[in-house]
Amino acid sequence: MLELFFYMQEMDKENIKGLIIVSTLIFLIAPVFVFSYVFIHNRRKKRHIEEKALMQLTFDAEITKTQLEVQEQTMQTIGADLHDNIGQLLSITSLTLNSIELDNDKKNRKKIDAAIDLTMRSIKEMRLLGKLLQGDQLVGMGLDEAIKYEINWIEKSGKYKVNYTNDGEMPAASSPDKDLILFRILQEVLNNIIKHAQATVISIKLEYEDSVLRLQVNDNGIGFNHADLQPGQVGMGLRNIQKRAGIIGGEANITSNPDEGTTIEILTPYP
Amino acid sequence: MLNYFNANTVSELVCFIVALFCLIKDHNIAWKSMILFLFITCVIEFSGTYIGIRYGNNNWEYNIFLMCESGFTSLMFINLFSKYTDSKPMIIYGLTLFVVCYATEMAYHSFLYYDNLTYGFMSIQFVLYSLYYFYLLLKDDAVVKFKYSPDFWWICGTLFFYFGSTACNLFYHQLDNIQIYRGEQLIDFIFKLLNVILYGCWSYSFICRKWIRKTLKD
Q1: With 80 as the cut, is the pLDDT of residue A133 above it?
Q2: What's the rounded Cα separation, in Å, for the pair B167 and B177?
Q3: What is the distance in angstroms between the Cα of A24 and the nearest Cα belonging to chain B?
Q4: How far from A71 is each of A78, A184, A203, B18, B74, CA to CA, in Å?
Q5: Nearest-CA distance from B25 to chain A in Å?
């Protein structure tokens, strides 16, 4: 710097003039680069915020859709149960009561007891249905509780043996949105098993470790070969499972082979 | 009379009028103080021109103005930084160094010589503050609409002015009597250009400030 200072003193005025003009121009142009960088960075920041808002909108829409689907599934279960179970119980009760003969006390006692028993069973079934009607609250009680209720309905059909294990302590803070999506995925998987798998044993495993929640469902059904599925057959079900797992930042792994059952594993950061 | 109106005085006067019109109802003390600062600037500039014509040396007046410039600009920086961080310790430390530099330079030469070193030191301070502001702006998550940001345009003007004058500050003593065009001194020409940029940016920032206040009111 000092050398430059002495050198400057030696320079003639014309050279100094040129040097000052050029360096002033450079000192004026330099801030322009700073401003340009700030502008570009700000624009990127804006785009990032817009993308985040769009993702949030998609997520919210998916949550609403899932809530509706859970409600729809609940209504279907209730409809089927009213028709197949409670309806039948009440029909038999009605028949039993109709068959009562007023002059045969001994026989009537048995029929009345049977009618009382049938009515009590109907009330019990109605109570269970009442609990199921509170679909949203079911998930609100926690994923573990919701899964237990779902299993309860499946086991009632008597066609399936369901094994459920919950390993690892769930975190104190839950994520209701993730719980809802995971529960809907489980419903979708169980629907697929009931409709297509011809399985007799279903195993469900919920595991929490290192901030990762793992939900695994496998059955002993007929399985399928992924490659053999037609494009249309890849199934809204399987695609939906993968899409929904992605929405909550997780992934779905589906493994299946003919006659070897199917295993579906959902891994997601939690809460 | 014509001697009193040049690029410097006209740009300062215009900026003062814009500030008066846009900031008179502003509730922020720092922004409102710009009216007073620009008024002092205009008084110094016009009286400086008068003293220059009448007595030749007006450096003592600009030496006094240096204190004023440092104080008001620092106040604005404290205000602009306050959105992101507490800058008071940094600015007060900077002002202390400025006073030390000013007193030292005053002790070494007469009051009639311009405190070029102190001015250079102050310029570096303001350039660093401006760059620090941009760093905080980049770090912050909020998106700023630069087109309507008074803070951004005020800093822009400040950075252009103080960074642009670096070459003149470094070679101040070599610039005596170097002319650029028909008797126009090179240093005067550069400072006129820098003044037009500075007061142009500041005027626009005051207009933005009024827009924002009006929008919030509506």
Answers
A1: no
A2: 16
A3: 6
A4: 10, 10, 24, 63, 62
A5: 30
What residues pair up with A206 in beta bridges, in sequence order? A166, A215
| Residue in A8, A27, A42 closest to B164 by CB | A27
Look-up of token digits 């949203």: A136
Chain B residues with beta carbon closer than 8 angstroms to that of A27 = 163-167
Looking at residue B19, its pLDDT comes to 94
Per residue in A180-209, pLDDT tens?
888 888 888 888 888 888 888 999 999 888
Q: Are B76 and B43 in contact (CB under 8 A)?
A: no
- Residues of B at the A interface (Cβ-Cβ below 8 Å)? 131, 134, 137-138, 141, 143-144, 146, 156, 159-160, 163-168, 171, 174-175, 177-178, 180, 186, 190, 197
The two structure tokens encoding residue A257: 């082979």
Question: What are A95's two structure tokens?
Answer: 């028949």
β-bridge pairing A212-219 and B184-185: unpaired
Flag if A17 and B186 touch (Cβ within 8 Å).
Answer: yes
Q: Which residue of A has its CA nearest to B132?
A: A34
Q: What is the ipTM of this complex?
A: 0.82
In the structure encoding, which two tokens stand for residue A57, read together?
A: 């909108």
Q: Specify whether the CB–CB gap between B206 and B152 falls below 8 A.
A: no
Taking an 8 Å cut-off on Cβ atoms, the answer to whether B167 and A28 are in contact is: no
User: Nearest CA of chain A to the CA of B137: how many Å?
Assistant: 8
Q: Please, what sign has the CA dihedral across residues B67, B68, B73, B75?
A: positive
Rg, chain A, Cα only:
34
Q: What domains lie within chain B, and their CATH numbers?
A: 2-217 (1.20.1070)
Q: How close does chain B come to A241, measured CA to CA in Å?
A: 34
- A9-13, B141-145, B195-199, range with greatest mean pLDDT: B195-199
pLDDT grade, residue A235 (50/70/90)? low
pLDDT exceeds cutoff 60 at A1: no
Domains observed in chain A = 11-133 (no CATH), 135-271 (3.30.565.10)
